[in-house]
Queue: 4 jobs
Job 1
Amino acid sequence: MADHRWPPDPSAYYPWPRPHWRHEFWLTAIPFLLAFIVFFLPATASAELPVLLRFIIGLPLLLAPIIAPLVAWWWSVARMAISRIRGYPDLHRGAQQQDTDLLAIKADLYDVALSRQGAMALDLLRARVDDGHLYISIAKKTQAPLAVDDPVVVVDQTDGMIMGMFKVTQIRDADYYAVDTSGVNPLWKGQVFQQGEVSMFPNMIAVPLREGGQQ
């Protein structure tokens, strides 16, 4: 609700600034102490003090501008390390849960692939890596026609592992040409890259994820 009092309270429009204390201000104590010793205790400054005592008093005052930030930094590092150690169990449990969820998703996708495996499973003919992408050639099958942009999943039947998601980019006379879109197994991709072109795919099949359109 607006304040319609007149005259208005100046503090509402021009508030007094508040001091903000910073840890670095403690460093101002060093020149204060030195000035106090020189100007208010001249006898102490000019006294014949033992050399060791001068080093004990003088070195901390001289090196304090360097030591103080390092101590503050080490303290921050120690606090962060303690926080990470304390938070690691929760992070580890979260990572394990994500792995479990990912395995469940893979299992569900594999079940979908297996349910369509009979008539929809397609054979892989060739694979090669070009410009960082994995390209595969998929054999045509009358029962499972595909169209451009149709998604295809490559599955390893031995363990149900999803080897990668692909998209049909070209329809040729004897095969479909597809490029990876996500989830490509890095080990498989590395093997194909090293060999240049692969034509053997033990226990691997390609399964369309939806019915194709017109060829």
Note: The mean pLDDT is 75.
Job 2
Amino acid sequence: MRCEGQERRGGAFSMGPVVWKQCKADATVMLTAVQNGKEENQPSCQKCWQKALDFGITITKAVPIEVKNE
């Protein structure tokens, strides 16, 4: 499962318009986050989870994603 984190490129002090791209890492945890008064579940990698905390997003629950070997 792929991480649902979004990364911003371009904008204010760089050339070109703002472009949002989805993180390319595999998700390791399912986060329940509160943003703009709404609670959402999203798969996340460790890096994007830390970014969310750094930006002040409230994480109410974190459940590890189990990887099944076939």
Note: The chain has a mean pLDDT of 89.
Job 3
Amino acid sequence: MFRPLLAVVASFLILVPSSQATAGSAAGSTVFRLRGSFVPDSFAGGSGPGWSVGGGAGWRLNSSMLLTANYDRVDLSDRQDRLIQPLTLQLETRFQPSRRVTPHLMLGAGVYRREEWPQIQEVPVQVPGSLPFGESNPSRSRESLFGFTYGLGVSAPVSKAVSMDVGISYHQTLDRDLQGTRSHSTVLSTLGAGLTYSLP
């Protein structure tokens, strides 16, 4: 379960020291992001299909490192008809920032608020003197779980202050809620694009 996460952490430990050698010019600037994503069905073992919209705000630690706070809304059209709202902190490292197209690697964690509506079950009811009709009694569950995310992508400048981002990210929650109650984990992957605006 955690082997892919450990591989990403190891990559950060190896690559971050080398990326900081180019640090300096953009340190301290603030960024804002808007993004939209598609959630493929069963991609990398995840739930789907669905879609996601979100955004975030961040702070450049140096020219190669970015720390962001993020909110997303993920709507899944699966058997549980789920709504997931990740609230995460993410650390992003960029490589070869002098080139026009810049690859980046992201690692984050936070709270995943989840709501689920099981599929409505139609139960035939017969009332004397009338035709059968259906009744439904869907139940809704709400819980908050700790989860992590990692991903990779590329960025390209659109203007001096705006860049376009394209990438893939993976999300997985633990199988217990924040109160320690046994639950089930959610796994999903997103393919998305967005814009990043940098303040001077």
Note: Helices lie at 3-19.
Job 4
Amino acid sequence: MKSFQIAATAAFALAVSGCATIRGGPNGDELVGRTLQVEAANGQVSRMGFREDASVRAVFGSRSVTGRWQVRGDELCFWWGNAPRECWPYPAPFERGRSRSLTSDRGNQVTVTLL
């Protein structure tokens, strides 16, 4: 009987922790190894490639820059060299082919599509 209670308690704890993970918000897994197309309000289009080591490479025109990315709560944040951190709303994972309009904590507006 005691081993049944231990097993039941462990199963419940595992189930609860799984629910907490689901409700915890997106973690960026859908971005790793993928590309986001980003269109700025002025029409400039860039592409951002996400790596598992938390680095990100943005390509715009013939230029590129490498930075860092991190999910912080319900925000997707970037650090580009000496520029200040910039975070974007990230309440749910991006879906391939679906565009999303976002405004950063610095007031920049973009339309983002996961390719």
Note: DSSP finds one helix and eight strands in the chain.
